[in-house]
């Protein structure tokens, strides 16, 4: 059966910037884990960032006029870490394509994994609607991205994809 990509910090891996994890207690995730369907992945670690690391936020977006990607990501020390985030997003797409993954469950709010909201680039804890680099790249390549609060919808889609592939 096809695997599901899941942000590593949502299950067992303490890979967040602060060295912590954000365990998700959903029974759906636990069932998928028991069935061996989960492929845990952290784009930021895959992109070359250490654990722990300073928090990072996206401070520039897509240029709406020419749709050029002008995204710039800085960490709380003011260092440009965009390259690491781009690399992590690229590696996420590679792994998804290798395993023919159709569904990703990504931790919302992250400059990599966020799909509904991110932080506004001021490091003041202000949320704004937006997507992280990995979520955006996966969605642009046809992957169905859900956050940790949308597992029921992800499960319904999974049933329907499984039924079609029989
Ligand atoms: S990049 Fe994604 S998987 Fe890695 S710690 Fe951040 S939210 Fe979790």
Give the key terms.
22% strand; alpha/beta; 5 helices; binds iron/sulfur cluster; four-stranded parallel β-sheet
How many β-strand runs?
8
**Global structural class:** alpha/beta
What share of residues are in beta strands?
15-25%
Largest sheet composition: 4 strands, parallel
What ligand species are in this complex?
iron/sulfur cluster
Helix content: 25-40%
Instruction: Report mean pLDDT, rounded to a whole number.
Output: 93
Number of helices: 5
Order of helices and strands: EHEHEEHEEEHEH
Strand order of the largest sheet: 2-1-5-8
**What is the 3D shape?**
globular
Number of domains: 1
Low-confidence stretches: none
Distance between the termini: 11 Å
Computed Rg: 16 Å
Report on this model:
This protein is α/β, with parallel strands linked by helices and 166 residues long. It has one domain (4-164). Helices cover 31% and strands 22% of the residues. The chain is built from five helices and eight strands, in the order βαβαββαβββαβα. It has helices at 27-34, 43-46, 82-98, 133-140, 151-164, and strands at residues 4-7, 38-41, 56-63, 68-75, 103-105, 117-119, 127-129, 144-146. The strands form three sheets. The protein has a four-stranded parallel sheet with strand order 2-1-5-8, with helices on both faces. A two-stranded antiparallel sheet has the order 3-4. It starts with a strand and ends with a helix. The mean pLDDT is 93. Bound molecules: iron/sulfur cluster (SF4). The site of iron/sulfur cluster (SF4) has 12 residues, from α2.
